[in-house]
């Protein structure tokens, strides 16, 4: 058997480009790489951030370990004056492989105060939150309702005499359920509740509630709070429940940047009722980036392992091939790698679009709200769905060892799975994007330039201009195929809806019956959007010819697999012919061959530290078997040669006479 590390060394020697140059591109420039390395150095050398035996811990131990790491992280952040959210996100992405018990504090609590608080409220709460003197969460979802926000039952009733709000959980189903970091960690929460003034309901607004005493962390009077129990994954996180019984807060605790309640109970409504949903939109944009990072990690583990793992001698006595040389294995992993790169590029687009449109909204251009919602909803759903399924493909591609916790892929899959549900269940979000697409289809005036393609009506009888397999290396033709599919499915969804209405159905029933068509067109739009962005962004890169070639080939793999996996949609209107589909399959194989020497280079370029992958299969040196063996020896069950259950249970039957 060849040595695993020599296998990876050989792979690295074959790579045609400079890996460090590609790392800089992925990070967004040399300076960003240096910043990332600096941040990593602050944390990686600390024993407290060691994850070696993490997979052996129980749920409670995992939570407790995460709290310990959180506190040290906060100290490190303070010690080095690290305040930039981007730095924090870098640390989470590349080093701290966990959903920390301050995840919600930083990702939702602080941004909600920043975006929905008045200047005075920001001045009061943000220094406390920034300094971790209080830890907050975002409590919106209830036992009875998550998707339908307008249906939330928690009430906040204004009492003008005392200038206070009174928070109540009027029914069992009104109990807040799921908020991250709520169960055991948070001292405060932004609670979303129905605002009542003089018996009139004004809809959902946000309120800051103190949950726990700052002296001894015990629940405040009227507050019942706890952990919701074990879940599929996210064991480090104390997703919680919260019930409130006449909890009184000062009037100033309603976040009043957009809507106001004056001391006498006069209400001033927000310029747009959806401004209160703003933090969810930010998190949806963040999920795109998280999806990219995690799929990159999974691809790194599975590709390195597949270069080390050898199986099945082709001819007696010959060295067994590396499993990566089986085209079936390439067909599992190369599309995941291509998707990881496509998502890394769209994540950058999503964040910059978020910041640009958010600035527009802040300056009063509320038209940007629906554009941002339309773009971020679909991309969140699309990237979460493909990332989660891609991680599982990577896990299975590692065979038996992929089932071991030591692979790192098991916990990654379990922890990423809920990204298809939280921040808006994926189907629900696709439906939102579809509504926006259909609006644009009907109203050119509201169509943003990034979506102007919707205005071009697909020509009946249009045909794909691909004449040979070589044509499939032309981005323009690939993008054209996805554009055509998106235009056609949007038009078809609009026609379907109209046909339902013309049959006499009311709007909501017609919308419901059109749901499957809506989701279809939203997915088609997202595939188009991501493919177009990948080729546009890659074309603009200033880099070596070899890197550009590899990236373009990855883009071709992403696009061609998208066509092959959804072939029915392209064949349905004869846009693509059977012969062209054969070209597609042929070219996919050709691209795998082109990329084969660079596969390890392409994953090395993500530059994940071993600690962040926490995988016996995916470490940089490829020393898989020693790692698996040493890890197993440390398993709690192996602490003694004879387990206590032998004395308790086994011994009597083993010793009994037959
Ligand atoms: C040094 C340290 C510094 C730290 C600084 C902080 C920076 C931190 C940065 C990064 C940290 C990264 C860490 C990542 C860690 C990740 C951890 C992940 C934890 C996950 C936490 C999860 C939280 C949650 O899940 S919160 C709860 C989320 N809930 C939902 O998403 C509910 C989904 N439902 C909805 O959004 C809506 O109700 C709806 C979309 C289903 C709409 O329903 P509907 O009934 O139709 O609503 P309606 O009110 O009638 O809407 C009418 C029209 O309004 C449109 N619309 C809806 N929503 C929006 C919107 N948001 N914006 C604009 N427009 C909207 C809707 O489309 C309708 O339009 P139309 O014209 O009528 O079609
Ligand atoms: C790990 C995790 C962390 C979370 N963190 C938080 C948090 O920090 N704060 C917080 O407030 N919440 C949090 N949540 C809650 C989360 O946001 C909701 O679970 C999510 O929005 C989905 O809502 P739901 O549970 O009500 O699902 P449901 O809406 O009940 O979905 C069930 C099914 O119904 C379908 N469905 C529902 N409505 C429609 C519709 N209108 N049209 C078509 N189909 C529909 C869905 O597609 C789905 O298939 C978290 C959830 C999880 C799993």
From TrEMBL:
Pfam families for the chain: ACOX, ACOX_C_alpha1, Acyl-CoA_ox_N
Keywords linked to the UniProt accession: ATP-binding, FAD, Fatty acid metabolism, Flavoprotein, Lipid metabolism, Nucleotide-binding, Oxidoreductase, Peroxisome
Residues where FAD binds: 141, 180
Acyl-CoA oxidase C-terminal domain ranges (all copies): 477-655
GO molecular function terms listed in the Swiss-Prot or TrEMBL record: acyl-CoA oxidase activity; ATP binding; FAD binding; fatty acid binding; flavin adenine dinucleotide binding
Positions of the Acyl-CoA oxidase C-alpha1 domain: 277-438
UniProt xrefs under InterPro entries: ACOX_C_alpha1 (IPR055060), Acyl-CoA_ox_N (IPR029320), Acyl-CoA_Oxase/DH_mid-dom_sf (IPR046373), Acyl-CoA_oxidase (IPR012258), Acyl-CoA_oxidase_C (IPR002655), AcylCo_DH-like_C (IPR036250), AcylCoA_DH/ox_N_sf (IPR037069), AcylCoA_DH/oxidase_NM_dom_sf (IPR009100)
Top-level taxonomic group: Eukaryota
Domain Acyl-coenzyme A oxidase N-terminal: 18-135
Pathway note: Lipid metabolism; peroxisomal fatty acid beta-oxidation
Coarse class of the protein's main subcellular location: other
GO biological process, one term: fatty acid beta-oxidation using acyl-CoA oxidase
One Gene Ontology CC term in the entry: peroxisome
Co-factor requirement: FAD
Catalytic machinery residues: 423
Location within or outside the cell: Peroxisome
Family assignment from sequence similarity: Belongs to the acyl-CoA oxidase family.
PANTHER family named among the record's database cross-references: ELECTRON TRANSPORT OXIDOREDUCTASE (PTHR10909), PEROXISOMAL ACYL-COENZYME A OXIDASE 1 (PTHR10909:SF250)
Record protein name field: Acyl-coenzyme A oxidase
């Amino acid at each position: 058997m060849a040595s695993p590390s020599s296998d990876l060394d050989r792979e690295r020697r074959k790579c045609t480009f400079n890996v460090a140059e590609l790392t800089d591109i992925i990070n967004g420039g040399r300076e960003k790489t240096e910043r990332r390395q600096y941040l990593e150095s602050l944390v990686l050398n600390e024993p407290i951030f060691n994850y070696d035996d993490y997979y052996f811990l129980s749920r409670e131990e995992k939570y407790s370990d995460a709290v310990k790491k959180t506190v040290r992280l906060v100290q490190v952040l303070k010690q080095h004056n690290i305040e930039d959210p981007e730095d924090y996100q870098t640390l989470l992405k590349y080093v701290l492989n966990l959903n920390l018990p301050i995840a919600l504090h930083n990702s939702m609590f602080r941004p909600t105060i920043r975006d929905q608080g008045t200047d005075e409220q920001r001045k009061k709460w943000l220094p406390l939150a920034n300094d971790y003197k209080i830890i907050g969460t975002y409590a919106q979802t209830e036992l009875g309702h998550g998707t339908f926000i307008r249906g939330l039952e928690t009430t906040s009733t204004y009492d003008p005499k005392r200038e206070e709000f009174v928070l109540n959980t009027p029914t069992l189903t009104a109990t807040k359920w799921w908020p991250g970091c709520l169960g055991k960690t948070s001292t405060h929460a932004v609670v979303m509740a129905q605002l009542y003034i003089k018996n009139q309901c004004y809809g959902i607004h946000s309120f800051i509630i103190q949950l726990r005493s700052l002296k001894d962390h015990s629940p405040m009077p009227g507050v019942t709070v706890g952990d919701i129990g074990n879940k599929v994954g996210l064991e480090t996180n104390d997703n919680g429940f919260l019930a409130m019984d006449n909890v009184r807060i000062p009037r100033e605790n309603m976040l009043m940047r957009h809507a106001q309640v004056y001391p006498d109970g006069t209400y001033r409504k927000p310029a747009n009722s959806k401004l209160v949903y703003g933090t969810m939109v930010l998190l949806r944009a963040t999920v795109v980036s998280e999806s990219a990072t995690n799929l990159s990690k999974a691809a790194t583990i599975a590709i390195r392992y597949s270069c080390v793992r050898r199986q099945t001698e082709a001819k007696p006595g010959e060295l067994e091939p590396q499993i990566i040389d089986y085209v079936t294995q390439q067909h599992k992993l190369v599309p995941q790698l291509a998707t990881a790169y496509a998502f890394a590029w769209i994540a950058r687009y999503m964040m910059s679009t978020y910041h640009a449109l958010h600035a527009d909204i802040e300056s009063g251009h509320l038209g940007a709200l629906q554009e941002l919602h339309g773009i971020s909803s679909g991309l969140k759903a699309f990237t979460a769905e493909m990332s989660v399924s891609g991680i599982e493909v990577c896990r299975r591609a590692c065979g038996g060892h992929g089932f071991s916790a030591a692979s790192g892929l098991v916990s990654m899959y379990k922890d990423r799975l809920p990204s298809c549900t939280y921040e808006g269940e994926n189907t629900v979000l696709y439906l939102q994007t579809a509504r926006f697409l259909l609006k644009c289809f009907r109203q050119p005036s509201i169509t943003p330039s990034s979506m102007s393609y919707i205005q071009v009506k697909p020509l009946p009888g249009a045909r794909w201009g691909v004449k040979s397999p070589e044509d499939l290396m032309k981005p323009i033709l690939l993008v054209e195929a996805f554009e055509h599919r998106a235009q056609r499915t949007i038009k078809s969804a609009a026609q379907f809806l109209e046909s339902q209405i013309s049959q006499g159905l009311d709007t909501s029933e017609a919308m419901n019956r059109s749901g499957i068509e809506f989701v279809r067109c939203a997915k088609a739009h997202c595939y188009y959007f991501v493919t177009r962005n990948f080729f546009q962004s890659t074309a603009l890169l200033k880099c070596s010819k070899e890197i550009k070639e590899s990236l373009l080939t990855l883009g071709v793999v992403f696009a061609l697999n998208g066509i092959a996996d959804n072939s029915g949609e392209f064949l349905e209107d004869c846009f693509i012919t059977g012969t062209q589909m054969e070209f597609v399959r042929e070219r996919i194989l050709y691209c795998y061959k082109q990329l084969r020497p660079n596969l390890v280079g392409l994953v090395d370029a993500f530059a994940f530290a071993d600690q962040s992958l926490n995988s016996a299969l995916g470490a940089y040196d490829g020393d898989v078997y020693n790692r698996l063996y040493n890890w197993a020896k440390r398993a709690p069950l192996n602490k003694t040669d004879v387990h206590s259950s032998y004395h308790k249970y086994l011994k009597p039957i083993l010793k009994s006479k037959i």
